[in-house]
Design goal:
By secondary structure, the chain is of the alpha/beta class. About 35% of the residues lie in helices and about 20% in strands. The longest helix has 20 residues. It starts with about 30 loop residues before the first strand and ends in an 18-residue tail after the last helix.
Length: about 675
């Protein structure tokens, strides 16, 4: 990265604005524990591992012995069925502690409360959907009599109808949440006829429409834990004489590597004496393979880095190496080996059309995938926002191939788009990072990213891995379809092999990006421009900046600047232009730069190391090593990620957990 002369076009003092604080909201997390250890501490540690998902409140519930309740129940002659249930509870109660705010706030609340012991419990971090973030709406939620507790990820779509029916029956709602309804539904079923907790949960969930991942415990069955899922991930961790339920593997890795993944429409019942049993919600017993987690504790720790995002940006050269290892064959004729696609390769090669469905950053990777596949393999590609695709009655045919891209493999809209494609007989492929995720299990075949856990909410290394995997697919298809000859494949494979070291050279020059961030940290707006392969990079650069720094930023095809965005350009508008000389439209990009300068705008250009033509014209020129045109995005995106990171950090933003965002969007 080299710094060009300063034209004084964008001094920091020109950018003044009032920052507002908005309550953060994001995606929920579940941790439940049964074993011999201190459940409170195990669950608090697990919740801390899930903080990257984002949340607004946290809470936990513990099963505890309650001798006073047992004595009262034994001596009382009350005729109500509730007293009978309390008798059978063997003197146990549910202790709940929950607070708005961070897991650290919950931990402090637990320290102040001496009655938070126990070896069975459920815990939760909440993203507000029904009702604002406060102590009352935080999970867990209790039944009216306090004998049953529930934590829940997802959204109940028939919330209003169920709420009205329960109120009609005399139930009082303490919170504004949809989760509380589940506790009342289960309690209502058991009040009519006592039954095992898992059966009551199963019957209650048959009345629920929407997405859920839940964990439930009851005081009258103090050695039992029940979990279930539909549309929201839930995994079972199997340790030595202990079990965990969690919405993410990072919450269990410190206790065990052995896990079983629940599929949609499944329930697990865990007891101390009999272990666990997985069933369908139709009560059919299942046998589930136990898998070994591949992640390590080191991968989900920041180490010496200030934030996970900075660590993950720095990891990208290694990520590219891991994604290519065993897949990029540089010997002899050169080839691409994608073992996960071999069984379906004939159908993939014969496809007359490929559709890519994704959301957010993954959609940007998909858009670049369109350019790559159409250019290198000459197959028509359409890229769709999964959230739109699933609702717009798209035309799908059995000959189509649908590729779903998702870092987590749990994105709700992308999963729904996959189901729609499968209904039409399409070949469905997955490109995701998380082994055993819903998309990995729902697709016919696919390719893992091997990027390692990505903790920062704003995706960086997963985006680069997605681009690389899509490039591998494009080259493989190009070779199999005879769109690329042997020499072309060899040249492209060798160019890809050099990428990790080239990217290291880009990242070594972060000090100049840091200096540039100091100049532009007070900007209110940014414009990002690119052409061809670099247009999706412009979109991604703008997204990164707005996600973590809360600066308004837009990405556009450079040629579209004249069709509206040019009206916004003045001395207060920094414009990032990705202008490598290898771009066939480089001269047109130079014209874009001149048009911005003519209107007093400040230009940040990205070009190759051996191109000095822009130095005298632009406020900053970020220089990256020369590579093939189709690989430039993998080098150009890194300085944009760094710039977004440094600006956000200087503005005192929560880089790893930006407000209102979720790492894995598992609800609509």
């Amino acid at each position: 990265v080299s710094s060009a002369r300063s034209r004084g076009g964008c001094p920091a003092l020109r950018f003044r604005f009032a920052r507002q604080t908005i309550s953060p909201s994001s995606m929920c997390g579940i941790v439940a524990y049964m074993g011999q250890a201190d459940a409170k501490q195990v669950m608090l540690t697990g919740l801390a591992r899930l903080e990257y998902r984002g949340y607004d409140s946290a809470g936990l519930a513990l099963i505890q012995a309650d001798e006073s309740m047992h004595a009262a129940a034994s001596s009382s002659s009350a005729e109500a069925s509730e007293v009978k249930r309390r008798r059978t509870s063997c003197g146990h109660r549910i202790k709940v502690v929950k607070t708005a705010g961070k897991v650290s706030t919950l931990s402090t609340a637990c320290e102040r409360d001496s009655e938070t012991s126990g070896t069975l419990g459920i815990a939760h971090t909440r993203w507000a959907t029904h009702g604002p973030p406060n102590d009352v709406n935080a999970h867990p939620h209790l039944s009216t009599d306090g004998s049953l507790a529930v934590v829940h990820n997802g959204i109940i779509e028939n919330f209003r109808a169920l709420r009205s029916e329960l109120i009609r029956k005399g139930y009082t709602m303490r919170s504004e949440t949809d989760t509380e309804l589940i506790a009342h539904l289960i309690s209502d079923i058991r009040s009519k006829q006592w039954m095992p907790l898992e059966e009551a949960v199963r019957q209650a969930l048959s009345q629920v429409q929407g997405a859920f991942g839940i964990a439930v415990l009851a005081a009258d069955e103090p050695h039992k834990l029940v979990g279930a899922r539909k549309g929201s991930p839930l995994i079972l961790g199997i340790g030595d004489d202990e079990y965990l339920l969690a919405s993410d593997a990072s919450a269990v890795i410190e206790r065990t590597r052995r896990v079983a993944y629940l599929n949609d429409g499944e329930l697990v019942c865990i007891t101390r004496d009999a272990g666990y049993q997985i069933k369908t919600l139709e009560n059919v017993k299942l046998i589930r393979e136990v898998q070994e987690l591949q992640m390590s504790l080191h991968e989900i720790q920041k180490g010496s880095f200030k934030h996970f995002m900075l660590k993950e940006i720095a990891e990208q050269p290694e990520v590219l190496e891991n994604a290519m290892r065993g897949r990029l064959l540089a010997e002899n004729d050169c080839d691409v080996n994608l073992g996960g696609l071999m069984a379906v390769m004939p159908r993939l090669v014969a496809a007359s059309r490929i559709l890519i469905v994704a959301c957010g950053t993954s959609w940007h990777a998909g858009l670049l995938g369109e350019y790559l596949i159409e250019t290198l393999a000459r197959v028509p590609v359409e890229v769709e926002y999964a959230s739109e695709f699933r609702y717009r009655r798209p035309l799908l045919f059995e000959e189509d191939v649908v590729i779903a891209i998702s870092q987590s493999g749990e994105t709700a809209d992308t999963i729904a788009a996959l189901h729609l494609a499968k209904q039409h007989g399409c070949l469905c492929l997955g490109v995701c990072n998380t082994v055993g995720s819903s998309i990995a299990r729902a697709t016919d075949a696919g390719v893992y990213l091997h990027a390692g856990p990505e903790i920062g909410v704003a995706s960086t290394k997963a985006f680069s891995a997605q681009i690389l995997v899509l490039t591998l697919i494009a080259i493989k298809l190009g070779k199999e379809r005879k769109a690329l000859d042997t020499e072309q494949v060899r040249a492209k494979v060798r160019a890809m092999m050099a990428l990790p070291d080239l990217l290291r050279r880009v990242l070594e020059q972060k000090e100049t990006v840091l200096h540039m961030a100091r100049v532009f940290k007070y900007a209110s707006n940014f414009l990002y421009l690119g052409r061809g392969f670099n247009f999706p990079v412009a979109l991604e650069g703008a997204l990164k900046l707005k996600e973590i720094s809360y600066i308004h930023a837009e990405g556009y095809p450079a040629a579209e600047m004249k069709h509206g965005p040019i009206a916004l350009i003045d001395e207060f508008m920094p414009v990032v232009i990705i202008a490598p000389r290898s771009d066939p439209n480089y001269s047109k990009l130079q014209s874009n730069i001149e048009e911005v300068l003519a209107r007093g705008g400040s230009v940040i250009a990205i070009t190759e190391e051996d191109n000095d033509e822009l130095d005298s014209r632009c406020e900053y020129v970020i220089k990256v090593p020369r590579t093939e045109e189709f690989l430039m995005p993998l080098l150009a995106v890194a300085p944009l990620q760094l710039m977004a990171y440094y600006i956000a950090d200087m503005r005192k933003c929560n880089v790893d957990q930006p407000r209102n965002l979720a790492k894995s969007v598992t609800v609509e």
